Amino acid sequence: MAALHLTTENFRREVLEYEGTALVDFWASWCGPCQMVGPIVEEIANEVTDAKICKVNVDEQPDIAGKYNVMSIPTFIVFKNGEPVKVSTGAMPKAELLGLLK
Q1: What is the pTM of this model?
Q2: Is 54 in the active site?
Q3: CATH fold group of domain 4-100
């Protein structure tokens, strides 16, 4: 399944009220590292079945980015049962992204 694109309208339902693990990629279209890691995020979304893989465009959803103090992109936040448990900033290989879900 493709990565779920989050907005202020669906963030609460899809992440904060979700009982399970969600990886949220905070990105922007003008960000080179974001463009490099974007296809990897989509690959993971198509392969992982035990976590929800999501994306937040920081230019379109600044309120969400601000709430989680996203200052650099890409930033990845792992939520478990609606609570942020891990934060990692910067592009990384697929194995490291998958490692965030462990």
Answers
A1: 0.96
A2: no
A3: Glutaredoxin (3.40.30)
